Amino acid sequence: MSGSIASYDQLVRQVEALKKENSHLRRELEDNSNHLSKLENETSDMKEVLKHLQGKLEQEARVMVSSGQTEVLDQLKALQMDITSLYNLKFAPEVAGAGRSAEDSPPPPAPHRDVSGDLGRATFRMLEELDRER
């Protein structure tokens, strides 16, 4: 009989340990869920910022075309392509669930040596920061 009591006590201890682990995992899941929600909100905010910037760039492009400043327009097109490439490089594999390796990814675009390059580098840094937080 004492063997079955010891066995029962051991089972009770195991159940208590499992309950503690379950509680810990629930808290961790909740924390991860909250963090994911925060990242989704930040990503949504960044998309809005990028849409706003794209709208401003398109408006500037229309003004430049009408005034004959095509050289700057070419720089803006390159910047837009850089931003799109960076976005695709950072987010497309994860969204699609492709899980591509680094060797399958295209190399990051070369930075510009003008004002638009500063914007491209700043955008790249923000994307990197979001990626680290994720």
Please tell me how large the radius of gyration is.
26 Å
Helix/strand class: mainly alpha
Mean pLDDT: 75
Biggest sheet, open or closed, and with what strands and sense? none
Number of helices: 3
Shape: rod-shaped
Beta-strand share of residues: under 5%
Reading the helices and strands in chain order gives HHH
The total beta strand count reads 0
Distance between the termini: 55 Å
Helical percentage = over 70%
In the predicted model, the low-confidence regions spanning at least 5 consecutive residues are 95-116
Essential attributes:
single chain, 134 residues, mainly alpha, 0% strand, rod-shaped
How would you characterize this protein structure?
The protein has 134 residues and is mainly alpha-helical. Helices cover 84% and strands 0% of the residues. It is built from three helices and no strands. α2 (70-96) packs parallel to α3. The termini are far apart.
